[in-house]
Amino acid sequence: MIYLDYSATTPPHPQVTARVAEVLSQEWGNPSSIHQYGQRAALVVERARLALAALLAVTPEEIIFTSGGTEANHLAIFGVAQNYTQPQHIITSAVEHPAISAPLAVLAQRGWQITTLPVDATGRVDPETLLAHLQPNTVLVSIIYGQSEVGTLQPIAELAQICRCRGIVFHTDAVQVVGRLPVDMPDLGVDLLSLSGHKFYAPQGCGALVVRRGLALQPWLYGGGQEGGQRSGTPPVALLAGLGMAAELAQTEFLPQQAYLLNLRDYLCARLLALPGLRLTGSWSDRLPHHVSVVWQHGDTTHTGKTLVHYLNQRGVAVSSGSACASGKTQPSPVLQAMGYDDRLARCGVRFSLSHYTTKSELDQAVTALGEVLQRLTPALSWS
User: Fold this and answer.
1) Where does the Aminotransferase class V domain start and stop, copy by copy (predicted)?
2) Is residue 325 annotated as part of the catalytic site, yes or no?
């Protein structure tokens, strides 16, 4: 099976798996306990915090461990909102992950004013559009960094600077970016940043919200007061050890392979666009280094991107139609609709996401399989 769905999840790195197994067998104490078992487990957690902080150029105290990107996004949104006794104004974009749009919808039901910024045909937010929609009561702006479905990177530093100059909290969902591109959070200028370990070879079930020092944030979970009182609950020590190991590997192995990954991405894109009926989606100049996305243009309304995923799976190739959280649905993609695609094309997106472990031979096999599927489903197209 050829796996080309690394944006959905990455397999744990062998060193990560080994570290998790080691901690499960030897450092399984509760970090809140004051005896030796607890102290040893607490040390594991803090070493992981140090490693992740080093990856993002922040202090360890700014790291709040969570169960993943969804919880981190909820903590960012509700943590800011709960600072206010009356509903205020929040700005987001039309291409956010549901882990952002869904909690914002909850706040809208509670009387908060939510402004959703439009994007251009590549999925990018214009900083001037953000500037035009700021209000005196705007307290939070949340814009995704790397769009999981179409791969577009937002001008986060420029957007964050607009907010920083006006004292508005800026959050970015960087789940698709951390571990794949260098991220210097102070240089980026954001106040809150969400990440998820399983997107860069750590286990599923661990992530973090990075909170700029000095920013007031209300807890999302209450209880024992772990994570500096910001996120109660016994930490998953072994998973966090894996996250720390993945953060170290990102610096020593994953990020140094970026040139190879970009070469693979460009090679795959060229081969895909040589097939009839496929059209690139998202920005090419501002794009995740491991990501290629297309829409399948054809006349048969019964076939969708999910159709291609199904047939490719039968041929031993794993890809997705849209983000992993929505790939089982047949409704038009809200992201593609926001970019101007009609309902039919918005059902026909397909995403290929790569790893530095991916080979050109695998890509050749995947493209050949896709060509066979397209020829079967659209025989009227020219296949010269």
Assistant:
1) 2-365
2) yes
